[in-house]
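Journal club side-thread
Mid-discussion, someone asked how the predicted structure for our own chain would compare to the paper's figures. Pasting it here so we can look after the session.
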Amino acid sequence: PLALIREYEGQVIVTEPRRVAALSLAHFLAARLGQKVGHEVGFQVRFERWPGTRLTFMTPGVFLAHLRMRREIPGVDVVVVDEFHERDALTDAVLALLREQRRQGRLRVVVMSATLEASRVASYLDAIHIDFGASSVRESPDGEVLNNGRYEVHILYRPNADLPQILREISEKEEKKDPRFPGGGTLVFLPGKREIEEAARQVRAAWPEAVILPLHSECSEEEIRAALNPPQGRRWVVLATNVAETSLTIPDVRYVVDTGVEKVQVWDPRTGAGSLRPVPISRSSAAQRAGRAGRTGPGVVFRMWSREDHARRPEFRPPEILREDLGHLTLQLLDMGIRPSSLEWLD
């Protein structure tokens, strides 16, 4: 995004599917410019607004509100749709509207993700597909080794282990001076807030000295900042939902423990209601999570499922638009003067 504001004169908007990512990225890039949020770089999320003069991070719902009752966004040269692999319904709506504007020659659109159905999205947008990927995976005796072009990440499968057993394994390997276990922070992926609270009790029992940092959608901005800036010189554990799967860089993560489960909203036509259900994550989500251990140095990932189970999982998370109630999205578009059936949707 900083390169884009140097390249173009107008504003740049970046949509992030999660509020936590929009906040943290705005603060991070403002700091890179030696500024505070609200100058050149800013954010707009629900109930909080610090827009930037050149670059603004938004959630998709807030971006759609910008388009309310009009189809143009004057003064904006580029819109970046980030982390598109998450495929929430609002992002799909944003992309359909941007596709319309782009075809009319009014806008430049960038769609980004580390695990993207790139050729399909490029065809939908009649766009250029640029692959910056440099990752490779090789087999190892007890799992796999992911190389992201800078650091190696060892992926170990532990289908029969629980969290305390994995924490004990990390401690034992560190004590034995295993070169793959140099010490550092631990990031644990869990399905929801209730599971995070239970995991916190397990971590306290196994590592009483550890600082425990929760990270989920209900966290306050202070809790988010604490999780993204863990203490130096102490053992710490971030307990997170898939909010930490993408966009966020937690410094000095050396170990990722992945339960392999997430909660998704599913519409049930028999009951006429939606519900949150725990489901196995996709292979692309697992790759995103594993990458958290190799952002700032080499790392180790513990997957709490088998290699055979991993091979059977779907490559991508099913998009929300195919599994959720679309009533709210339909009403939102109609309120903007847009008939959903008039748009060409990716799905």
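Post-session note: The two ends are 28 Å apart (CA to CA).
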